[in-house]
Amino acid sequence: MLFSYKIVLSIARRHNRSLFSCQRPTGKRVQRYDKKLKVESLELKVLIFSVFFRTFVRQNNEKMLRIKTFLLLLFPLACLQAQEYKVHSFCWERVEVTPELDATPSAEAAAIVAPYKTSVDSLMVPVLGLSRIAMNAKRPESLLSNWAADVMIEGGTATGLEPADMGLVNIGGLRNNMPEGIVRRGDVMLISPFENYIVVLEMKGSDLLELMRNIAAVKGEGVSSSVRMEISSDGKLLSCTIGGKEIDPHRIYTVATIDYLAEGNDKMFALKKAVKRHDIGILARDIMMEYIIKHRVIDSKIEGRITIK
């Protein structure tokens, strides 16, 4: 589900030369602080913003990330207009992005986009191939995540490596559906819009088992056809096999995935324990495009790769 955030700012002319003011509760009282700083040069404004930015990046509270981002964008404006204006108030609302919004397109917005539309269309419109069915991504197993995980294994061989024992993609990284019928370059770019590169990791069997537990804990991710997993409704790993065999804790296995996951993101913590990493140097979406061009027609099916008991 896509959302946009509409923010309304109320700007009031300043009656003094305070750079900014804020309110902070202390017990039952609210104290008002006015920092009266004159901003006379662009250099000083940049310095103030730099200090403000460093203060924020030191904080790691993810729940405040959106608020921080908004403030960081707002602060340069406040600095540049500090001598004349101040933000009096602001409010916001979450707007769901749905096809209904296209019913009344903005003529003003269309005029802004028009000069760029031709060049963008030339990148997005070229046909890559066909898909027999529409594919989406969801847990514990889905058509799109199955297809994408299998593509990771083929992508991992691009530099001459042997096919990996397992392919892995995160459901959250698949941002759109694969359409049935004609597949265009733009379709794949919407599915995989991030700058994620293919990597192949060598892992001990004991660490691979931990990875399987990571996958179970989030109720499933995209895994290749070589994998079979059973997990409980509360996210516990019940059983798993690679290539039809139980995982040997003492053997070295290979996992084809993306660099984002290789760094332990999306709760795939075990991937950080890889004993060796092979950077393929190709974007995940480029591998997907090449796969469609090569095979011309793509397909996928639910195989019971991950089941919840």
Keywords:
alpha+beta, 5'-nucleotidase,  domain 2, 2 domains, four-stranded mixed beta sheet, 8 helices, 16 strands, about 30% helix
What would you say about this model in short?
This protein is α+β, with helices and mostly antiparallel strands.
Explain how this protein is built:
This protein is 32% helix and 30% strand. The chain has a five-stranded mixed β-sheet with strand order 9-6-13-8-14. Residues 9-44 and 55-60 have low confidence and may be disordered. The protein has 309 residues and is α+β, with helices and mostly antiparallel strands. It folds into two domains: 3-96, no CATH class; 124-308, Alpha-Beta Complex (5'-nucleotidase,  domain 2). The chain has helices at 42-57, 65-80, 107-124, 143-155, 185-191, 205-217, 259-262, 284-295; strands spanning 3-13, 20-26, 29-35, 85-96, 127-131, 166-169, 181-184, 197-204, 222-223, 227-231, 237-242, 245-246, 252-258, 276-283, 297-298, 306-308. Helix 1 (42-57) runs antiparallel to helix 2 and helix 4 (143-155) crosses helix 8. It starts with a strand and ends with a strand. A hairpin with a 2-residue loop joins strand 2 and strand 3.
User: What's the total helix number?
Assistant: 8
Query: Helix share of residues?
Result: 25-40%
CATH class of the largest domain: Alpha Beta
Strand order of the largest sheet: 9-6-13-8-14
Mean pLDDT: 82
Question: What integer value in Å does the Rg equal?
Answer: 25 Å
Judged by helices, strands and strand pairing, the structural class is: alpha+beta
CATH superfamily of the largest domain: 5'-Nucleotidase, C-terminal domain
Number of domains: 2
- The proportion of residues in beta strands is 25-35%
Annotated CATH architecture of the largest domain: Alpha-Beta Complex
Distance between the termini: 28 Å
Number of strands: 16
What is the string of SSEs from the N terminus onward?
EEEHHEHEHEEHEHEEEEEHEHEE
The CATH topology of the largest domain is given as: 5'-nucleotidase,  domain 2
Taking pLDDT < 50 over at least 5 consecutive residues as the criterion, the unreliable ranges are 9-44, 55-60
Morphology call: globular
Main sheet: strands, sense, barrel: 5 strands, mixed
